[in-house]
């Protein structure tokens, strides 16, 4: 499928180049930064690039995911590393940074929540629909979305494919829109779910 995703490949290259540029610049001033300053810079200048438009990267190859993950690991190691710290993963956990593949899913799930809870935006709401089984089943009460079959036109990365696939994999206790009072609560529950899944 990724042969069809040339824009995503270019996006990965652009993100990696931007991260490396900022890391090179920050290294010159890094010794004079406090821990809080280093964290703020990492979030503002580098992690924001990894976050930008990453919902478009769903379904890209493991090779490109690995490239982005190396950027995140390098950022964590160079800017946040401290003497005696066990590992880069430990630092990522401490700063509540999900790995790249989970962060992509997180962004799509969050966008799905916003779409279902508010109906905005209309064009995204038209791309997803509630799952309605032909007869009464237990799944009728699970607030699932219909997963359409991918084709060469839409591809696996299309929101109409990625959104229900990711949404349905989230526990009902996290994605029950009517029981979640705000987007911040949903994000907190969702991030806890992903961290727990990665740890198990």
Q: Uncertain spans, ≥5 residues at pLDDT below 50?
A: 1-5
Give the number of DSSP strands: 0
**Number of alpha- plus pi-helical segments:** 9
Total domain modules: 2
Mean pLDDT: 81
What is the makeup of the main sheet?
none
Q: Tell the overall outline.
A: elongated
Share of residues in strands = under 5%
Structural class: mainly alpha
State the order of secondary-structure elements, H for helix, E for strand: HHHHHHHHH
Straight-line N-to-C gap = 30 Å
Radius of gyration: 19 Å
Helix share bin: 55-70%
Explain the overall architecture.
Helices cover 60% and strands 0% of the residues. The chain folds into 2 domains: 2-97; 103-199, no CATH class. It has helices at 6-27, 35-51, 62-80, 88-94, 100-118, 122-125, 159-168, 172-175, 183-199. The chain contains 9 helices and no strands. The longest helix has 22 residues, at 6-27. Helix 3 (62-80) crosses helix 4, helix 5 (100-118) packs across helix 7 and helix 5 runs antiparallel to helix 9. The chain has 200 residues and is mostly helical.
Secondary-structure map with pairings?
Elements: H1 6-27, H2 35-51, H3 62-80, H4 88-94, H5 100-118, H6 122-125, H7 159-168, H8 172-175, H9 183-199
